[in-house]
Amino acid sequence: MANFNNAYTENFYKAVLSLETVEECRAFFDDICTIKELQEISRRLEVARLLSEGKVFSEINRLSEASSATISRVNKCLMYGSGGYKTALGRLKENEG
User: In CATH, which of 2.160.10.10, 3.40.50.700, 1.10.1270.10, 3.40.50.1970 is domain 35-97?
Assistant: First the structure.
C-alpha cells in the first residue's frame, strides 16, 4: 500500500481525522462513498471483528454475508497487514466500556 500513498491520500486521511462526531463521519462518508462501497467497508470491519473473536469462516459468512474471498483478504490483513484493523478494533472495544 506504500506506493499508493501520495498527497491525495494524505489529504484524505487528514480529512477523516478532522471529523469530530459520528454524525460528521456519516455525512462525510455518505458524500464520498457509494452505498455499496460503504456497505463493503463496514462489512470488512465486521469480518475483522468476528475473526479477532475467533469465529470460523463458515460462521463469519453466515453472520456477515461476506464472501470467502473477502474473509480471506481481511484475515490476511489481520495476520500480515499494517495493524490498522487491530488498532481500530481495540479502540472500539475500549470505547464500549
Answer: 1.10.1270.10
